[in-house]
Amino acid sequence: MTMASSRQIELAREAGKRIHHFHGGLRLRHNKKISCLDPVERPPLPEVLVVPLLQHAGDIAEPLVHVGDTVLKGQPIGLCQPCAAVHSPVSGMVEAIEDRPMSHPSGQKGPCVVISPDGKEQWIELKPLSNWLDADPDSLITQIQSCGLAGLGGAVFPTHAKMREGRNRKTHTLILNGVECEPYISCDEMLMREQPDKIILGARVLRRVLGAEHVVIAIEDQMGSVQRSLTGSAEFADSENISVVKVPKIYPEGGERQLVQVLTGLEVPAGGRPSDLGLMCQNVATAAAVAEAITEGKPLIERYITVTGNGISHPRNYLALFGTPVSHLVECCGGYTGDVARLVVGGPMMGYPLESDSAPVVKASNCVLALSDQDIAAPQPEMPCIRCGECARVCPAMLLPQQLHLQIRNELWKPLEEYGLSECIECGCCDFVCPSHIPLVDWFRYGKGELRKQALESEAVEVARKRFEDREARLLRIKQERAQKMARRKQVLKDKTAQQERIQASIQRAENRSRSKPEGQSKGARDDT
Amino acid sequence: MMLSILILTALGLVFGLGLGWAALRFHVDSDPVVERIDALLPQTQCGQCGYPGCRPYAEAISAEEADINQCPPGGEAGIRALADLLGREPKPLNPENGEETSKTVVLIDESRCIGCTLCIQACPVDAIVGAAKLMHTVIKSECTGCDLCLPPCPVDCIDIVEVDTRLPRWHRPRPQAIPLRVL
Predict the structure, then answer these.
(1) Is 80 exceeded by the pLDDT of residue A194?
(2) CB A464 to CB B44 under 8 A?
(3) Which of A319, A32, A279, A326 is nearest to A180 (CA)?
(4) Pick from A152, A52, A151: which is nearest to A97 by CA?
(5) Using CB atoms within 10 A of its CB, is residue B58 exposed (0-12), middle (13-18) or buried (19+)?
(6) Is the pLDDT of residue A528 over 60?
(7) What is the CA radius of gyration of chain A?
(8) pLDDT band at B27 (very low <50, low <70, confident <90, very high)
(9) 3-state class of A126 per DSSP?
(10) Least CB-CB distance to B167: which of A106, A448, A461?
(11) Residue A174 in contact with residue A206, Cβ under 8 Å?
(12) Sequence-ordered list of residues with C-beta below 8 angstroms from that of B36, at least 6 positions apart, any chain
């Protein structure tokens, strides 16, 4: 594990006092305004909700319900011990548990719980920790886990695991990430405008769990109304050591590492995490969900989601239940405009295309983007790399994308680690500027997957080697033991014969003696007479 | 003349003794080349190379009794790695030993299993559990896909299945190039 020096930790404590810069990045057109005009509402209930059992980093959750069961709103329906639980977003009946499209970059189908709502919206009995200020931090973490919380910024890493690590690593500053740097997405901005109290309450809960001192809420410098709403909230007036910091608008500033660099001037060490510097980043939406989980006992069943793009008639933000089909949200927005070319989940830089709009909203979906023909360039044929170095100039992780690309293409896996492939945040800046139209990020994702697969395989190889050697050793031991046993038995048998011989010999002697004695006695007797 | 002969003889003696001492002092029991070859082999222990396991094959390669192209599970990549290590020319896989296939595991159809334990005895990595006259099953995560359990099974209840590459084991495929249109 990489360790930061005490000087670096001192500097990290100053987070947010001065604004620094990170390498590379792009200035992109924001396109956020179109979806920020209406206040956020809940859409009407869809006819059926499809809740995938894989919504976070980790394994597929085990279903806890059966087909035909009635479920209540907020009832756990999927359990995954080390990762986050999945809850029913509505009260209703389980119609099916089957493989359905599940809004994942792979486009694969996966196990989903299909629930038809009964419209009663009957909640399960909620167990809030209203006395959270006195509660033990471990019980807060347990509550966060049982409410199924995962990072809502897009990585969906289970929140309880991240908090537990942060608690063990002496975190001094909590950074709330409200920098929504990707174009079009505005769900975090709307959340900060409409629910500032929840965010700040969540920040205080998280700070208590971590034992941290400061909270820095980072927002973009163009979000004036957001700053007013956050600092003007009642909760903000009651809390100390919470500051709202504006950072310049450069993509990908919302990346964890880039944000840390902007706020502290320090780089998160390669292979390390912000917790090495005593920092922890959480998305603002995660903080709001934490507040709901602790003070109301509500599990994570809905999120703010932006439905936008030139392909949508009336772009806006919704507070949508997980499992709501994307098509339902689009309908609520007045449908498509007619010239939709591509449907993307996430932003235009890091999002992935959706094959069908029947896929559901999941914990990771922050945006549904319907791009029209004029938004996307026609697919360009890939040309050879001309080594212009433009990709290295914009790379926020200071990597050499052209070098990584050549190595992956030629399957030279060994040097990739040295060249820091694992440090790539897949922001897409290199893709965006490449004059040869090389899909660099696709190559990096493929390379990362391949390295992961190779690591798993070499682990399996080691296990197989060990099991084979153990088996050989066992067979040899059994053989030796059997040989020893045989030898012992032979010995015993031999001993037995020897003993028999000895017995025979003594019998013989006794017989000889008794045979000779009577003769002597009779002799003596004769003498007597 | 005499002096130079003496000096050279003395030098020869000194270095000879030094080398002799070093050979005793730094003596290595096992052949390190065998270890390094073994590390490159896939450890399926399938015996397709004609040797009873990966380690014996590694020993045979190191003794130059076996060629480097006899391991089908290792495939072309394995042969390339071996060629790199031993400084030889890579060559195509010997078809006599088999063909390179995608990774598989075996699955026991438990309703047909009679509990004869023959497959348990055949498995080189102890990946089958069961007892006499009781149902057997394969520990999927430990199975190397060597298929050595297939021939001894008297009721043919073992099937070969592809390894599951669906979520969450899925990973991104190699990007496909958009073909260049010549005008």
Answers:
(1) yes
(2) yes
(3) A32
(4) A52
(5) buried
(6) no
(7) 35
(8) confident
(9) coil
(10) A106
(11) yes
(12) B85
- Dihedral, A435, A438, A439, A443 alpha carbons, nearest 10: -140
Determine, for residues A446 and B170 on separate chains, whether the beta-carbon distance falls below 8 Å: no
Subunit contact A439:B43, Cβ cutoff 8 A: no
Residue B171 to residues A446, A451, B167, Cα–Cα distance (Å):
7, 10, 8
* CB-based contact A139:A397 (threshold 8 Å): no
**pLDDT of A80:** 84
A355 min Cα distance to partner chain B (Å): 16
pLDDT attached to residue A527: 47
pLDDT band, residue A1 (cuts 50/70/90): very low
Whether A191 contacts A288, CB under 8 Å:
yes
Q: What is the DSSP string of A298-367?
A: --S-EEEEEEESTTBSS-EEEEEETT-BHHHHHHHTT-B-S-EEEEEES-TTT-EE-S-TTSBP-TT--E
Pick the residue of A80, A443, A467, A478 with the most B CBs within 10 A to test the interface with B by mutation: A467
Closest among A267, A253, A198 to A223, alpha carbons compared = A253
CB burial readout A186-202, b (16+ within 10 A) else e: bbbbbbbbbbbbbbbbb
A-interface mutation test, from B80, B125, B143, most A Cβ less than 10 A away: B125
pLDDT class for A524, splitting at 50, 70, 90?
Answer: very low
CB A18 within 8 Å of CB A283: no
Q: If you count residue pairs, one on A and one on B, with CB atoms under 8 Å apart, how many are there?
A: 76
Unique residue bearing structure tokens 């002096």: B3
- Flag if B38 and A108 touch (Cβ within 8 Å): no
Q: Examine residue A252 and say whether the peptide bond preceding it is cis (omega within 30 degrees of 0).
A: yes
**What is the rounded distance in angstroms from the CA atom of residue A62 to the CA atom of residue A330?**
31
Edge to edge, the sheet with strand A214-220 lists: A242-247, A214-220, A173-178, A279-283
Q: What is the pLDDT of residues A390-436, one digit of tens each?
A: 999 999 999 999 999 999 998 888 888 889 999 999 999 999 999 99
B125 and A468 within 8 Å at the Cβ level: the answer is: yes
Give the distance from CA A76 to its chain's centroid: 19
Structure tokens at B163: 């390894």
